[in-house]
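ok so I'm stuck.
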Amino acid sequence: TMQRELQEEAGYSAARWDSLGAMLPCPGYSDEVIHLFLARELSALSERPPGDDDEDLEVLLMEPGELDALLASGDEYLDGKSISAWYRAKQLLGL
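replied:
not stuck anymore, here's the structure
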């Protein structure tokens, strides 16, 4: 579930989930559809549940302006679904 993934990958739990719509990550190559959600009303877990051994993840906490600056710089590799989710989250939040 989304909640379990958030707990395992980020060490947080969300009380609210807002749909950000869906996207096609590889149109013309695959019929895969990704559904995007914004996790809100977060609570940090005292201990992160065990996740997949092959996932090496780092959680970065930043302000919206910091993320915008990071995206604009082009200095970091970010995947398309994360960029799409951020764009849609900004629309939902009125940022």
